[in-house]
Write a structure and sequence with these properties.
This protein is α/β, with parallel strands linked by helices. It is built from eight helices and seven strands, in the order αααααβββαβαβββα. The protein has helices at about 5-10, 30-35, 40-50, 75-110, 120-135, 170-185, 200-210, 255-260; strands at about 140, 145-150, 155-165, 190-195, 215-220, 230-235, 240-245. A seven-stranded mixed β-sheet has the order 2-1-5-4-3-6-7, sandwiched between helices.
Length: about 260
Amino acid sequence: MGQDEERVSSLRGWGDGPNKGFLEQPQDIKSRVLFILPPPFCGLIYVLKPLNFGFSDRVYKNPRDVLNLSIMDRNFKLVAFGLLAFLLILLLYISFMDKKEEESWHLSSVVEESLKGKVPGEENKKLLEEATKKLSELSFLTLDGKEVKLSDYKGKVVLVNFWASWCPPCKEEMPIFEKVYQKYSDRNFVILAVNMDTSEGAMKEFLEKNRYSFPIVRIKGEAGLNIPGLPTSYLVDKDGSVKKIRLGIYRELEEDLSKLLQ
């Protein structure tokens, strides 16, 4: 299994891991629900009917009669069909969330194939070109009030990272960025850590307790960029083009950066 496949497996939380060899579990949310819910649902029907918790005036001694709709009384049918309706509504909701998860997952893995020595696919190319345009239009303000744009760093590799002080994954990846920045800052590498806190005071309070040597900035005016979640990172090449969009903790930053700095 290659490194990219390992990251896919670890981020989605299924496949290789403690469950491997024990049970082949489904990999999407909808399938997981279908995989997990039927046993307890059937078990609930199995337990409720014989125990007769006020749903019926009839007690069935034969458990097989519980699932026989022809002899169920009206009250228990209502309870059973109510539970079934709930399950169907839950599955519709899960289907919607699964679609959103797939969109986010796709975005998190948008990598220009040139990082892998390949020609970019059309869909990835379009997303990366759009991100390049949007980022180039943004203006940022440093903590001392200086206005900067991405074009100011042309000729350098830039990591534009969107983060917030209330975001645990953001706080987890900050030390990673600091380590990489200390190692590569003298090799034309810059980090613009774009704070997305609604309150500037929350950002300052966080930075008083956590010192970083790379620039911390905030967006000036309207964002104009659809940020799918936090943290989100954009790795920008020396010519100003976005080479990678990374949703989540960017653990492989040094690996990608080393390829662009060659």
